[in-house]
Amino acid sequence: MNKIRYFELKALKLFEENKLRGSVHLYAGEEAVAAGVCSQLRDEDYITSTHRGHGHCIAKGAELDKAMAELMGKVTGYCKGRSGSMHIADFTKGNLGANAIVGGGIPIATGAALAAKLQKTDKVAVSFFGDGASNEGTFHESLNLASVWKLPIIFVCENNGFGISVPVSQSTSVENISDRAVGYGMPGVTVDGNDVFAVYEAFEEALKRAKAGDGPTLIECKTYRTLGHWTGDPQTYRDKKVVEMWRDTKDPIQLFKKRLVEAGDFTEEELDKVEEDAKIEADAAAEFAINSPNPDPSDVMDDVFYEC
Fold first, then answer.
1. Would you give the distance in Å from CA 67 to the centre of its chain?
2. pLDDT in tens, 66-76
3. I need a surface site. Which of 95, 141, 206, 256 has the fewest CB within 10 A?
4. Taking Cα atoms as reference points, which of 121, 114, 53, 43 lies closest to residue 86?
5. Which pLDDT band, with edges at 50, 70 and 90, does 23 fall under?
6. Residue 79 carries which DSSP code?
7. Which domain holds residue 35?
8. CATH code at 289?
């Protein structure tokens, strides 16, 4: 969670310094979801991500330097600088890619789960998506087929309260997005997305179900992005005091840290060291990316067509 947080804050700083071209959609405040889910997955298990996807990528095992280089369009990035922020992928870790199209990753993950079942493997697929994507046709079609075919997939909705600037209450017909699971004959559960233990436990049950051949689960994680929808977002649509309340009292990293210290598992000094190490790693990733070469324009057609 600390790696994700400081990677995102470093990306924001690079954007503000005009060193990172284009906008990025940052995951700060939602780290418990990616960490609670991906900590239980193997490299061979699949995930699909969203336009706010750096957190999922890092939680699935990405190296910060290659991830930052990708955001900066450098040839040393995961996709040679071609994907940028919203399409980053790493097939070696089962990350089938982020997707700028809302709901675009949901059927891809469903297809990966179908492949796993047809190939008779024990692989599972996870689709991360936001509250806005739950109103897309891809969501409903994918949940229906996944349930009919009992596919090994877990649908993880990160409900951060807003689809860009539109509150969920103004766009979605149900109080809990997980309520929609009943229409597709699968379990649906809503958890505190800022509590990494709650996310972990809910996903643990869903994972057992998927591996047992019992089909999919819909998990809704209620969370909150403490930064704007994108790096240039003026955020005129939400109350600054509410943002501060979430940042000051519901921060997933601080809640986790407090619980670990109170349980006697770690000292504050030990966890401060974890945080400091994450800062150092994010700083090093930025230096690596800044000093990496830009792609050669003559290579623009490479990897576009496949020759049989």
1. 14
2. 999 999 999 99
3. 141
4. 53
5. confident
6. T
7. 2-299
8. 3.40.50.970
